[in-house]
Amino acid sequence: MDRNQVTQKIISVKVAKGLRWADLAGHFGQSKEWTTAALLGQMTFSRAQADKAQELFGLTDEEAAWLQIVPYKGSLPTAVPTDPLIYRWYEIVSVYGTTIKELIHEEFGDGIMSAIDFSMDIQREADPKGDRVQVLLSGKFLPYKSY
After folding, report:
1. What is the pLDDT of residues 45-77, one digit of tens each?
2. 3 catalytic, yes or no?
3. Phi and psi for 140 in degrees, rounded to 5?
4. Is 54 buried (19+), middle (13-18) or exposed (0-12) by CB count in 10 A?
5. 88 noted as active-site residue
6. pLDDT per residue over 100-126, tens digit each?
7. Whole-angstrom Cα distance, residue 135 to residue 125?
8. Which of 12, 46, 55, 91 is catalytic?
9. Of the residues 12, 88, 132, 138, which is catalytic?
10. Which residue out of 12, 46, 94, 114 is catalytically annotated?
11. Where would a tag sit more exposed on the chain, N or C end, judged by fewer CB atoms within 10 A?
């Protein structure tokens, strides 16, 4: 048994029950973005959250325990993603990464945007030419320090 097997079981139960990520978020009291990442094996559950997942997905005690172990982060199987939707994110960073870096450094100075103290919101934006995907990423700025 490992974390990936638990993730696969969660996905199988989700599909079998016709559940939506946004609906599951309400059970955990978290955003749909955090809940999805957690159920896909990228976040650590508290004991209460693992108990809730055990109830919702029919997990064993061992499977629920795996949810409380810090996971190996990074869910992509290859360096350059091959899934078209994920590849577009890679493409965005490849094309606009230096622009994002320059603008953050110009505004904040030398440092990084945290992916730990971080939030994300994904929404549908109606548009007569075709609905758009709106993604808001918000990470704490962490300056490099001198020592």
Report:
1. 999 999 999 999 999 999 999 999 998 887 777
2. no
3. -65, 140
4. middle
5. yes
6. 999 999 999 999 999 999 999 999 999
7. 10
8. 91
9. 88
10. 114
11. C
Reading the block at residue 49, the tokens are 């959250």
Q: Is 62 a catalytic residue?
A: no
Transcribe the chain into DSSP letters: --HHHHHHHHHHHHHHHT--HHHHHHHHTS-HHHHHHHHTTSSPPPHHHHHHHHHHHT--HHHHHHTTSPP-----SSSS--SHHHHHHHHHHHHHHHHHHHHHHHHH-SEEEEEEEEEEEEEEE--TTS-EEEEEEEEEEEE----
Q: Is residue 61 a contact partner of residue 51, using CB atoms and an 8 Å limit?
A: no
Which pTM value belongs to this model? Answer: 0.79
Tokens of 62: 């061992």
